[in-house]
């Protein structure tokens, strides 16, 4: 550690709800290869109705020699859990990772190194498919991984892999919206709020996390429902601009029709699924323009 590098702690936040996979997540956090000036502390926000896993999670952290705090944030509302992490954080920067993900050894250091001049840094997520449960077309299409291309909006990431300037969030009074806590997309709207308040974003491809694709998510029905809900949240984001509801609906209708035709003439199952998924997203925008209720993915 040089004289110009003051000792810094980063709070790593994990929101959990009855997932045993959190043990693997914690182990990957304990294995982080950090520069001398960086330290980490883990904040686990348990979104279950009771604090029944307190001892289990605490024992796991102790066995891994992880500095940690356990927060009970009932119940089954992911926004409440994310806000509990923010409320209990004391570090200037916080990182979020999902409770079924594992981080590569250089994950936290890579996010931290990309911070200069930014208020938020995203990293990629690599999906791990089980060929016994995931169909071939899904594996070939890699529908569950997430990265960010050069044409993608800089704020279009998620809380499954991100580092956030907590002081910026605190200064602007930003919160994850509890009305979206059983719907999903609360992180999308949170990052839009950051953008509206002048935040600057970055994407660091070296900050990789991996996530196994659960059997319940390895099918077309789940994929289309997820994209449809994403479209509903996208409609909310579009409403923040100057476009009218009629304009948004018209564009979405054209896109739905195009995707349906593209799916019909796709040369293989992967192409068909990709176009159906895009169509489902635009259908979410379209139905929301006509007042459809939000699909509660996590209810």
TrEMBL record:
Residues 12-140 form the Glycosyltransferase 2-like domain. It holds the Pfam family Glycos_transf_2. Coiled coil: none annotated. Keywords: Transferase. GO terms for molecular function: transferase activity. InterPro entries: Glyco_trans_2-like, Glycosyltransf_2, Nucleotide-diphossugar_trans. PANTHER family: GLYCOSYLTRANSFERASE, GLYCOSYLTRANSFERASE TAGX-RELATED. This is Glycosyltransferase family 2 protein. It comes from Alteraurantiacibacter aquimixticola.
């Amino acid at each position: 550690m040089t004289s110009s590098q003051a000792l810094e702690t980063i709070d790593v936040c994990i929101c959990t709800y009855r997932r045993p996979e959190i043990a693997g997540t914690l182990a990957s956090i304990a294995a982080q290869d950090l520069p001398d000036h960086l330290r980490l502390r883990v904040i686990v926000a348990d979104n279950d109705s009771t604090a029944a896993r307190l001892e289990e999670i605490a024992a796991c952290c102790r066995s891994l020699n992880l500095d940690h705090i356990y927060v009970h944030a009932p119940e089954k509302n992911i926004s409440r859990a994310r806000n509990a992490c923010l409320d209990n954080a004391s570090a200037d920067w916080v990182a979020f990772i999902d409770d079924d993900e594992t981080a590569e050894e250089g994950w936290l250091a890579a996010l931290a190194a990309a911070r200069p001049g930014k208020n938020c840094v995203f990293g990629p997520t690599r999906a791990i498919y089980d060929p016994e449960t995931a169909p071939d077309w899904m594996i070939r299409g890699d529908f569950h991984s997430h990265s960010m291309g050069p044409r993608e909006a800089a704020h279009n990431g998620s809380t499954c892999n991100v580092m956030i300037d907590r002081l910026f969030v605190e200064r602007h009074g930003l919160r994850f919206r509890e009305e979206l806590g059983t719907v999903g997309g609360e992180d999308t709207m949170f990052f839009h709020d950051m953008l509206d308040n002048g935040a600057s974003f970055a994407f660091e491809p070296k900050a990789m996390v991996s996530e196994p694709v659960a059997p319940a998510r390895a099918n077309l029905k789940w994929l289309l429902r997820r994209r449809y809900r994403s479209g509903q949240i996208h409609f909310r984001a579009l409403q923040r601009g100057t476009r009218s509801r009629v304009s948004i609906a018209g564009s979405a209708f054209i896109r739905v029709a195009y995707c349906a035709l593209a799916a019909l003439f796709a040369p293989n199952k992967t192409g068909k699924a990709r176009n159906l998924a895009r169509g489902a997203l635009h259908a979410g925008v379209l139905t929301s323009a006509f007042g459809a209720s939000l699909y509660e993915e996590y209810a």
